[in-house]
Design goal:
Length: 390
């Protein structure tokens, strides 16, 4: 079964897509990655999306329009990618998260937009979507769902290994002798991106190659204040998002400083915040092997900073696990879609805090009647092969 995975993450800069051809032999699953790509949002659409995100106020009319426009953008990417790979049997679309409702230690709701019916209509194949909420109803945080893929890729390693994703928010899956734990660490690119966009420092909307941060210095007083955020002291499982770590959050901390901080120093300090929070948790968990993915792994100040702060840890890109560092979440979505269509739960105990595994998502039929494969018992092993970026 060929499945297309689609996602726009918490950096909301574009749509990641991956086509994976899955084959099974008993409980052994192999996924051949046929394509992996990322397509930026149109600037005007991204601007509307940013303007509607918390803590800004918006309207139901704007959410309805964005749901359609993002759904159409996903459908366009889906059509382009599937044309390159000779078609797919199904799609799993995460859509775009616009709100993740967390109250204290509990996630109570989550909202992703990007109407999947546009994809089903364009491609004529079933589309799995709305994948996070079932985990939340089972007591989980709905995040990080990537822990399911991480556990399959890391389970054979000795000692304690982890997979780190550096998107808008940093999340980590730790697999060791005592089992698995996964959670959101804190901001990765979210705060830096917010400042870059506000100041108009880069039309790309992020600090490409850390060019801006390189020109600044870490402001230790500001960094110390940022590190006192109570979220970091919460016990996993836990999740967070831009509802907490947003531009207004930066402004509040700057106001509390009562002094001017050069913008380059601010960007450098927020970049260092990611390094410090991640390194602290990696050391505390005794992690010997760390596979990094997400946009933040392309920031040399973050990746080199982690390697310098963690001399006892082997820090590599997720490519070494067969999952391209820039396409890992889209591959996850393809895997979740395959699991849903085959009746396989895509939650691993300890990954999200859910009471027990659940089959994720809802299914929008394609052009014809919905015909599902015979349910499978589960996955014992997963091997990813032949990644080919397009």
């Amino acid at each position: 079964m060929r499945v297309l995975g689609l996602i726009s993450g918490t950096s909301h800069d574009g749509i990641d897509a991956a086509v994976v051809d899955f084959t099974t032999e008993g409980a052994e699953l192999t996924g051949a990655v046929l394509a992996s790509t990322s397509v930026p949002y149109a600037p005007e659409l991204r601007a509307r999306l940013i303007a509607a995100l918390p803590p800004a106020q918006t309207t139901l009319a704007e959410i309805c329009e964005l749901d359609t426009l993002i759904g159409q953008a996903f459908a366009e990417v889906a059509a382009e990618v599937t044309a390159q790979t000779g078609g797919v049997d199904a799609v799993c679309s995460h859509g775009q998260t616009v709100y993740h409702w967390v109250d204290g230690a509990h996630a109570l709701g989550t909202l992703q937009i990007g109407q999947p019916a546009w994809i089903a209509e364009r491609l004529g194949v079933p589309v799995v979507s709305d994948i996070r909420i079932r985990d939340i109803t089972a007591g989980g945080h709905g995040a990080p769902l990537v822990s399911f893929l991480d556990e399959l890729l890391l389970r054979s390693r000795e000692g304690t290994a982890a997979a780190l994703n550096l998107g808008g928010i940093s999340n980590m899956t730790v697999v060791g002798p005592d089992g698995l734990v996964a959670y959101d660490i804190g901001p990765a690119n979210a705060l830096v991106d917010a400042v870059i966009v506000e100041q108009g420092l880069n039309p790309l909307g992020y600090d490409d190659d850390a060019r801006i941060a390189r020109t600044g210095e870490v402001d230790e007083r500001l960094l110390e204040a940022l590190l006192t955020d109570p979220y970091y002291a919460l016990t996993p499982p836990k999740s967070t998002g831009k509802e907490h770590f947003h531009l207004g959050y930066v402004h509040e901390h700057l106001a509390a400083q009562g002094r001017e901080i050069p913008v380059a120093d601010l960007v450098r300090t927020l970049t260092e915040l990611t390094v410090r929070t991640v390194a602290r948790d990696v050391r505390a968990a005794g992690i010997g092997f760390l596979a990094v993915s997400g946009g933040g792994c392309r920031n040399p100040l973050i990746l080199d900073g982690l390697r310098a702060a963690l001399p006892e840890t082997e820090v590599v890109l997720a490519d070494q696990l067969g999952a391209p560092a820039d396409g890992k979440e889209a591959i996850l979505l393809a895997l979740i879609g395959w699991c849903t269509l085959h009746g396989v739960p895509a939650i691993v105990p300890g990954g999200t805090g859910a009471r027990e595994p659940r089959i994720l998502g809802t299914i929008t039929p394609g052009a014809g009647p919905l015909v599902l494969p015979a349910p499978l018992g589960g996955i014992a092993t997963l091997t990813l092969t032949a990644a080919a970026a397009s």
